[in-house]
Design a protein that fits this description.
single chain, about 270 residues, five-stranded antiparallel beta sheet, five-stranded mixed barrel, 3 helices, 16 strands
């Protein structure tokens, strides 16, 4: 091979290696885990007695993914609930990795093999994952990326549309944490009008309220694809995963499609 041809070949390889192919959603994912659930998410919740434990039994559970890191508003966690409609309970598993939506897209059914995972509570929320020690105390942390595929499996069932629970702000309680909810007739508070969803590279809190004055935090990532977009000024519906940080309930959307604020604000009605 001549020098010119070798140079051309090398340049071509470098070019192909640098191309960002964003069409990842067509990846072929192995969904043949061969596992069957033998416990419910509620039964796993009952295992927690106040301190972090490592699950030693061959426990297998199933759930429906309700979160998505496709647009960057979720990071390092997969949130799932027990059914696609009217869930009784939701849960989350913390993982060390990105682009989990490529392997566990929102609406997909997953199987989780729990043996070896840790179960604990962080800021009032029960979680599954790896473990780390801080000041001699064990805490649930992110599951290393190489171990995720050994514990979380995509079921071969087709994706199903998750029906968010329609709730009011007064109905929100701990039983709805890590489930997909829909709030109607809410709007961003006046102090947050004309502000973007999030400040650059910062976790940002905005507040939503209903016409009764009840409020909830809208939590957004400064790394989300839409973080620079201004929050719509009107009143309407919003869908998101309900989280909690100590005593503060928080709502996290997956994309701008979860927000439909096109009606008149409360003070204009």
């Amino acid at each position: 091979m001549s020098y010119v041809k070798r140079l051309f070949f090398l340049v071509t390889l470098i070019f192909l290696g640098c191309v960002k192919d964003t069409n990842f959603d067509k990846l072929k994912i192995d969904c043949s885990s061969g596992l069957e659930p033998n416990k419910t998410i509620e039964e796993i919740k009952a295992l927690y007695k106040g301190s972090v434990i490592q699950i030693q039994e061959d426990i297998v559970i199933e759930g429906y993914v309700i979160s998505s890191d496709k647009q960057g508003n979720f990071f390092g966690s997969i949130h799932f609930q027990d059914t696609h409609n009217n869930p009784k309970i939701g849960f989350q598993i913390d993982i060390d990795g990105t682009d989990s939506h490529l392997f566990y897209p929102s609406g997909s059914k997953i199987i989780l093999k729990l043996k070896g995972l840790y179960l604990g509570k962080s800021k009032g929320v029960l979680k599954l994952g790896g473990v780390f020690s801080a000041f001699g105390n064990l805490s649930v942390g992110r599951l290393p990326a190489l171990k995720v595929e050994k514990h979380v499996f995509l079921m071969c069932d087709s994706k199903i549309e998750i029906q968010p629970q329609l709730v009011t702000l007064k109905m929100i309680d701990d039983n709805r944490i890590n489930t997909l909810i829909k709030l109607k007739e809410v709007e961003v508070i006046e102090a947050d009008l004309n502000k973007p969803f999030a400040e650059e590279k910062e976790i940002t809190k905005r507040k939503l309220q209903d016409c009764n004055g009840d409020r909830i935090v809208l939590l957004n990532s400064g790394y989300a694809d839409f973080h620079q977009e201004a929050i719509p000024e009107g009143n309407g519906e919003i869908v998101g995963v309900l989280l909690k940080n100590k005593k503060e309930f928080q709502l996290v959307i997956r994309s701008l499609e979860d927000v439909t604020f096109s009606k008149q604000r409360c003070d204009e009605k």
